[in-house]
Specification:
homodimer, 221 residues, alpha/beta, five-stranded parallel beta sheet, four-stranded antiparallel beta sheet, 8 helices, elongated, DNA-binding
DNA sequence: TGGTCGTTGTCAGCATTTTGTAATCTGGCG
DNA sequence: CGCCAGATTACAAAATGCTGACAACGACCA
């Protein structure tokens, strides 16, 4: 899962980045407010860690603008000035949790997990498209009612495609969502992954749009 | 199951903590209102024991804010000033039950069990899934009617998995729930624990979802 | 005090599954 | 034809989970 780290102190940023990577996330750093705002507004992240004390553009303003644009990813704010009022202000601006600096990395990870879980974990509904359905609670995919055994990565692929069914998803986008920008265009990992899923869900489940990407469901016929 | 104790009197807090631990819960203490509010707001607890007479932030306010944020864990309030009006106020603010100080530890435990059970929605205190059943009152697990001897930690594992049967529980989540503090992926303590329980309850009782976690019961059909 | 027992975490080795890479195929199209 | 995006296959590397052995620790009891 991609996490956007908005932090101007490069040492803290790299520490955070390392810890998140070790915890299995895919961290990306934005070191100034403008960059942060743009990326949070246009890209998809599983969560954002936002330092309030930033040059160029205040963290709180960024937060408010995101929320105004109905960007609803979970957000954990950091600040050196651990005052009660600022904390409340942050929460009111739409943050999900707050952590005063300095902080323990373990605590940060725990809180991050908590807000992600709270956001996504429980209320997610069942997805059903065509003969495939997906139960996020059990992380179980079934085809015509028959359970299909998927590996973690395969599951994430199907989940993402189903969440975005009817839209064309480029290989680039898939790769980013699944792994971060770990592998470039010279690898065919995505193609292999898609092939594996097709073998399990049937070749028609995922449609190829040559030169553009993949699409789930919506058989054009 | 994690229980948040919000209590500024350290002696009471530690007594409570000990009693809850002995009863098989995982107690955590917050000694001031601010801390309490945040943890209750951001972390998951099975229940909260909330003292109304707190410095910095009034217990009732904390309670109202939690409820306003749709935090719906069961809450048992304590107060030294056992007045009728305050009790009503507490219930109206969203508490589940009320206990005047001083109190008997046994009564507290009974009421705590009651509100947890009421919240969990199962009318029978007994949990039964497949050939395994669990009696929380006696902390006794049986398999096909035969009592099984479990260590405290093993019991807590089974309890938590049964309360959440049909949902996938990650190793992370298990570790947090069972220990209160988190230990990293460099330890395989959870795996060892699961193996030990399986030896006692049968290998099929706990299903492994590779890469995701564990799930109780709910054979893949 | 010392011994025994049960509990729980750690470690190392093993088996299995998952995933990336490379090599080779396929089918449409200019 | 020859090219190209994508499909398929096979293989190797990495991740993940299981197991048995062992050690640390505390409770309990002579």
């Amino acid at each position: 899962m991609r996490i956007l780290i908005v932090e101007d102190d490069s040492r803290i940023a790299s520490d955070l980045s390392a810890a998140l990577a070790a915890a299995g996330y895919v961290p990306e750093v934005a070191s100034d407010g403008e960059d942060a705002w743009f990326r949070g507004d246009t890209e998809d992240f599983g969560a954002v860690i936002l330092d309030l004390g930033m040059p160029l553009m205040d963290g709180l303003s960024i937060l408010r603008q995101w929320r105004a644009n109905s960007r609803d990813m979970p957000i954990l704010i950091l600040t050196a000035r651990g005052t009660w009022t600022e904390r409340v202000e942050g929460i009111e601006a739409g943050a999900d949790d707050y952590l005063p600096k300095p902080f323990e990395m373990d605590e940060l990870l725990a809180r991050l997990r908590a807000i992600i879980r709270r956001r996504g974990g429980y209320s997610t509904p069942r997805l059903a498209i065509g003969e495939i359905s997906l139960d996020p609670r059990r992380m179980q995919v079934t085809r015509r009612g028959v359970p299909v055994q998927l590996s973690p990565l395969e599951y994430r692929l199907v989940h993402y495609l189903m969440l975005n069914s009817g839209r064309i998803i480029s290989q680039q986008e898939l790769a980013e969502q699944l792994q971060g920008d770990l592998f470039e265009r010279e690898s065919n990992a995505v193609e292999v992954l898609v092939a594996r899923v097709r073998r399990k869900l049937g070749t028609t489940a995922i449609e190829t749009r040559r030169g553009y990407g993949y699409m789930f469901g919506q058989e054009t016929v």
